[in-house]
Amino acid sequence: MGAVGRLQQGQRVPALRLRGHRLDRRLRRAAGARERLPIKVIGIYSQPEWAALVVGEGSDISSPADLAGRAVAATPGTDPYFFLVQALAEADLGIEDIELQPLQHADGRSALEGGSVEAWSGLDPIMGAAEVESGAQLVYRNVDFNTYGFLNATEDFIDHHADVAQVVVDAYEEARTWALANLEETAQLLADAAGIDLEVATTVITERSNLDVSGVPGEDQLAVLEAISPMLADSGDVAGGADAVEQARAEIIHDAFALAAGGGAVSAPTDIPLPTSTGPATATATPDSGAPPPPSAAAPRSGTAPACAWLPGRCCR
Description:
Helix content is 40%, strand content 14%.
C-alpha cells in the first residue's frame, strides 16, 4: 500500500514531518540555525491575532509608550516577543528601554497576576483565559504585528512523499473552509481539545482568528518575514547572520500543493456539507510548535468539523 493509502487508513507513514509551525522558528531553520532542519512553507490556514500587550486589571499602562522602565514578560524567539519589539518601536522604544523578563507564555501570565511584572506580551488562548478569569486587559493590539498559521514540511519529505503532502494540504484547506462556515462548532472543538472554557475558545475563534485568508503562501507572508528578519539576524541564532536569513526568506515558499488544493480566500458559505473519508490521518504537528496538528480525515460526527485537531491558537508559538 502506498503512503497516501496508509495515511487515509490511519496507518503511520515513516518520516512524515509535516508541521504547522511558528514562523520565526521556520526561518531560523531554513537559514541554518543551530538545529538544522530545512523546511518550507507549503500552506496557510489562518491569520490569527494571537499576540497582544496584556496588563492587570486597574493598571496605569495604556499604551506601548508606558512600558518604558517597566518589567515586561515575553518569550524570546516567539511571536509575542516579536510583537513586543514592534509595539515598542511604535513608541520609539527598544527592548533595552524595558526590563524584559524572559518567561514561557504561561509563566508570563502567572508573573503578571502575581505582580512580578507589570505587563506581558501574551499569547492566545492563555491570553483569553487571563481576560476571563482574572480581569486582564489587552491594552495594545495590532493584527499586522502578528504572523500567520503556517503549514510546513521538510524538504526531504516534499521530495520523497509529495503525494502525502498534497493529501494533508487538501485536508487543511477543506478544514479551513468548513471552520469558516461553522465558527461556533470550531470554537467548541477548540474548547474540548485544549481543555479551555468555551467563552475563551469562542473569543479566540470568532474575534482573533481570520480564517478568510488565502491558503496559498506568498507575498503577505514574505512581508511578515521581512519585518522580523532583522531581529532574527541580530539574535545570533542564525549561522551566517543577515545574509543567511535573507537567502532563507527568498527560498521559503513552496506553493505548489496549496495551488493544487485551490487554497484561495473564500467567503463563508451558508451551507457546506461535512466531508467524509475512510479513516483518520496520522500526520501530527510538533507538540511545542504552537501550531495545530494537521486535520483528521476521519468521518466526522454530526455537527463537527472534519478537522477535529485543527485548532488555531491551541498552544505555544
